[in-house]
Amino acid sequence: MTAGPDREPLDRSFFDRPVLEVAPDLLGRVLVRSTPDGPIELRLTEVEAYAGLADPGSHAYRGRTERNAVMFGPPGHAYVYFTYGMWHCLNLVCGPEGHPSGVLLRAGEVLHGHAWAHQRRPKARNDHELAKGPARLATALGVDRRLDGTDVCAGPDAALAILTGYPARPAQVLSGPRTGVGGEGATHPWRFWIDGEPSVSPYRAHTPRRRNSTRRQVGT
């Protein structure tokens, strides 16, 4: 991995902060996914914050389970969950241990490893669509439940690492309601994205499901 100030891995103290500080500060950072085929690098352009026990939209709102246990551990680890019976989503755990919160990585711009990403996302019409949405991002990077609990602060050669990159300027960062979140958390402006980035996913409001349908959570 090439050296340089923008190539320094973020340390655990970066993630050991309130989630509403960490989330917008992740924009412009570089996510590196090391695979046997080679690394894929992605510049983060869209994220969502989930505040754990204080957030009805969070998987951790009702307490610890086998599924969300990583969120209750130390910061700087990956929380990967499976949703809708077919997709994985990648999140980064924030805040002090025992106080679960996390940032859902919603979208990014692939910087390196386009060929590997296109192999995993053959339906992407262009590079901007490779990681345009949380399930697409995880698919393009080859992320699944096997990476749940991965320490992203373990070093640049870990399966997942976050590099300093070039953080987005505050004037570039926009915020609004989270995608697909209903109930008490529907209006929280905890989705953050870089203005004008073509890789940012479209916003979709929560659509209530019919009473007899299976309820599934989308956030963290």
From TrEMBL:
Domain of life: Bacteria
Pfam families reported for this sequence: Pur_DNA_glyco (PF02245)
Protein keywords: DNA damage, DNA repair, Glycosidase, Hydrolase
Top-level EC class as recorded in UniProt: hydrolase
Enzyme Commission number, as recorded: 3.2.2.-
Region called Disordered, residue ranges: 197-220
GO biological process: base-excision repair
GO-annotated molecular function: alkylbase DNA N-glycosylase activity; DNA binding
Family membership: Belongs to the DNA glycosylase MPG family.
PANTHER family: DNA-3-METHYLADENINE GLYCOSYLASE (PTHR10429:SF0)
Protein known as: Putative 3-methyladenine DNA glycosylase
The species this protein was found in: Streptomyces malaysiensis subsp. samsunensis
